[in-house]
Amino acid sequence: MTTIYPPESIYNLIPREEVRFETPPRYTSKFRDQVKQEKQSGKAAHRTMGPTKVETPSPEKFLRKHSKEPRLPEKKQFVYMDGDKLRKPPVPARTEIPKMGVHSAKDFIRDNTIKNLLSAPRQPQPIYADTKHGDKQPLECSGLVPKYLKKKDYGQIPEYLLQRKVEEGRAQEEYDEYVKERLRQGAMKQLSDEERLSTLQGLKKNWEELHHQYQALSIVTDTGPKKYIKEKLEMQMKQLEKDIDLIERHKTIYIANN
């Protein structure tokens, strides 16, 4: 077995101080004693195996019949919590004689006649039949009754629409002021109709050239370069379509001065 020595160096001749690492004291929780007490409190002697010696039962205390059955409490007379205040009067006995000769001065026939004469006749409920068999439904909830025409605000513009219109007008005024200020500073300029039309024609011409190249591609894209060229042409055509749609929708176009 060969011994491997470190390479010779002049720095190895310089004596070095031995570095000693002091181990910090071991951490001890302040709840250590409390945990020990809680652990010992849950333990009890003879919990699983029982005591070592058990006293023999007395022969006089033998198990009797029905001795382990639960016993009901003694029967007591029911008493209301509030006493006799909430109890109704007792039913009269059959031997009691009812009070006789009690009459009322009210003429029920005359009162019923007057009530019927003064009462309004009952109006039939409006209904409609929606099937050939005569199935009837309430007319009010059918939508056939023009009850919304009788509202006070019928035909008027809602308040939130008026408020939104005012906010849109205010935003448009602020935008117009911003555009005027930028034009005054020379930061941007407005495209003329001739420049706008020429730009639109140029974009359409570029789109036609890309479309012609796209139509000339191979039907089968089984290689990486074919897929790359097809995706590139589709992306360029889509961007040109967005630019053309933007210029066609907006008649006034501003561009920034570099």
**Low-pLDDT segments, ≥5 res:** none
Q: Give the oligomer, counting copies of the same chain as homo and different chains as hetero.
A: single chain
What is the helix/strand order?
HHEEHEHHE
Ends apart, CA distance between termini: 80 Å
Radius of gyration: 53 Å
Number of helices: 5
How do the strands line up in the largest sheet?
1-2
How would you describe this protein?
This protein is mainly alpha-helical and 258 residues long. It contains 5 helices and 4 strands; from the N terminus they run H-H-E-E-H-E-H-H-E. The mean pLDDT is 85. The chain has a two-stranded antiparallel sheet with strand order 1-2. Helix content is 38%, strand content 5%. Strand 1 (127-129) and strand 2 form a beta hairpin. It has helices at residues 32-41, 108-118, 159-185, 193-215, 224-249, and strands spanning 127-129, 136-138, 188-190, 254-256.
